[in-house]
Write a structure and sequence with these properties.
binds adenosine-5'-diphosphate-glucose; Rossmann fold; 18 strands; EC 2.4.1.21; glycosyltransferase; 6-stranded parallel sheet; 39% helix; 480 residues; 9-stranded mixed sheet; alpha/beta; alpha-1,4-glucan glucosyltransferase (ADP-glucose donor) activity
């Protein structure tokens, strides 16, 4: 089976969040099931500099009006097709934002071009690679099924995965002519979205099947409170909606072999965690007392519930806890958390920024991680935490609810608890969850039991890759 994946990020080449982790890990997991995935990604500078001896497959003189090349290369075990289009991607900044943090004004064209090329490949652009199915991700890949539907690849099945419905790719009608879609694509069952153009909306209308990254979130996005305006579109396609929980790359995230942590350890011997705890205290300038260390590895945004933190930190410290924060995002939140750290020297430490290495040390050295997200399609940090014996303290929503077993009385009795869940998702809920975690931490035997139980949880891709494989097969056989 040949799959074309279309994504705007892929670990380890370019990552701003969980999409990159999934786009990077799923092809490797599918490979062991005999499924070959090639991934189409934009040739940002971060990608181009990682490519060793890429092969130029095609010169594309007119990708929505700009010239481009399609390169082929294998990198870190991933088979990549790189859209090298300097006019669209050779920029200072990240994949979506310029150096000052603003959206590139032509993002609509940058990702329409990616999707257009994806659809062309589905339609037979490459003589040695005919995808049996196309798997597109988020709004940046969402026009792929749209171009397929209105073009020559209409018979090839497609899957669109929603990783974050908060980002929908909505643009003014004025771009329509430049997208080179037929006039009838601007319709309610196409890409028209409240008089504008909706990339994710169009993708949801056009893909053969829709997935999101946990069963609970698949149910939630049918409701107005989570669907962010798309609940009606999704409800109309509920019969092709699937929730498949994410796995993690258990090779990269393995406390027994992780070069980024102070000492390797496993569930059989958790003692070496102490070395990472010490390194973490050193980095974040935290007191060396035995109080529990909570951690945060997150975008500092409302989605992630990070605005709740300033409201609970004084209480966390008053109860003997410490907090190590790694994140960046909303400037006002960064300011509030820097202020909290300044008020609580030795108890709260913060590193503003994105730091992959440090995120590993936090999982290995902290006692618990706080994930108070307002909504969370799946969430990956709690899965890394489970694998590292760092107790996840999570809001009861989406994939967080599906992957962490709350340490309630029954679960503790049955020895199956792996973390702490809380609701309602507000400052009081989080405060209560922190109190409960501190009480659990005081019982060292119980705490170790929860750590070990979490480390036993299957967070690998094996099961979920199997579910994607089943879905792909069923769609391919239906359209064959
Ligand atoms: N400052 C920092 N330094 C280093 N690493 C940092 C960091 N901030 C975040 N990260 C890392 O970025 C990733 C974040 O992934 P998440 O799944 O938690 O959320 P995200 O909202 O990006 O993903 C969306 O897509 C994914 C994938 O489907 C869903 O799990 C999720 O629910 C959805 O919102 C993790 O690998 C985390 O360790």
């Amino acid at each position: 089976m040949n799959i074309l994946s279309v994504t705007s990020e892929i670990y380890p080449l370019v990552k701003t969040g969980g999409l990159a982790d999934v786009a990077g890990a799923l092809p490797l997991a599918l490979k062991s099931l005999g499924i070959r995935t090639r991934t189409l990604v934009p040739g940002y500078p971060a990608v181009m500099k990682r490519l060793a001896k890429p092969v130029e497959r095609l010169h594309l003189p007119d990708v929505l009006g700009v010239g481009a090349r399609l390169l082929e290369v294998t990198c870190e075990g991933l088979e990549l097709l790189v859209l090298d289009c300097p006019a669209l991607y050779d920029r200072v900044g990240g994949p979506y934002l310029d150096a000052t943090g603003n959206d590139f004004p032509d993002n609509w064209k940058r990702f329409a071009a990616l999707s257009w090329v994806g659809a062309e490949i589905a339609g037979g652009l490459l003589d040695d690679f005919q995808p049996d199915l196309v798997h597109a991700h988020d709004w940046q890949g969402a026009l792929t099924p749209v171009y397929m539907r209105y073009g020559r690849a209409h018979a090839v099945p497609s899957v669109l995965t929603i990783h974050n419905i908060a980002f929908q790719g909505q643009f003014g009608f004025n771009i329509f002519a430049e997208l080179r879609l037929p006039p009838h694509a601007f319709a309610m069952d196409g890409i028209e979205y409240y008089g504008d153009i909706g990339y994710l909306k169009g993708g949801l209308q056009s893909a053969t099947a829709i997935t999101t990254v946990s069963p609970s979130y698949a149910g939630e996005i049918l409701q107005p409170s989570f669907g962010m305006g798309l609940e009606g579109v999704i409800a109309a396609r509920e019969n092709v909606l699937h929730g498949i929980v994410n796995g993690i790359d258990v090779e990269t995230w393995d406390p027994a072999r992780d070069p980024e942590i102070a000492a390797p350890y496993s569930a059989a011997n958790l003692k070496p965690r102490a070395a990472s705890r010490e390194a973490l205290c050193e980095h974040f300038n935290l007191d060396r007392d035995s109080g529990p260390i909570f951690s945060i590895v997150s975008r500092l945004t409302w989605q992630k519930g990070m605005d709740l933190l300033p409201e609970v930190v004084d209480d966390l410290v008053a109860h003997g806890g410490k907090l190590a924060i790694l994140g960046s995002g909303d400037a006002a939140l960064e300011g509030a958390l820097l202020n909290a750290a300044a008020r609580h020297r030795g108890r709260i430490g913060i590193t503003i920024g994105y730091n992959e290495q440090l995120s590993h040390l936090l999982q290995a050295g902290a006692d618990a991680i706080l994930v108070p997200s307002r909504f969370e399609p799946c969430g990956l940090t709690q899965l890394y935490a489970l694998r590292y014996g760092c107790i996840p303290v999570v809001a009861r929503t989406g994939g967080l609810a599906d992957t962490v077993i709350d340490a309630n009385h029954a679960a503790l009795q049955a020895k199956c608890a792996t973390g702490v869940q809380f609701s309602p998702i507000n400052a009081d809920g989080l405060r209560q969850a922190i109190h409960r975690t501190i009480r659990l931490y005081a019982d060292r035997k119980l705490w170790t039991q929860i750590q070990k139980q979490g480390m036993k949880a299957d967070v690998s891709w094996i099961r979920s890759a199997g579910r994607y494989a089943e879905l792909y097969s069923s769609l391919i056989s239906r359209t064959a």
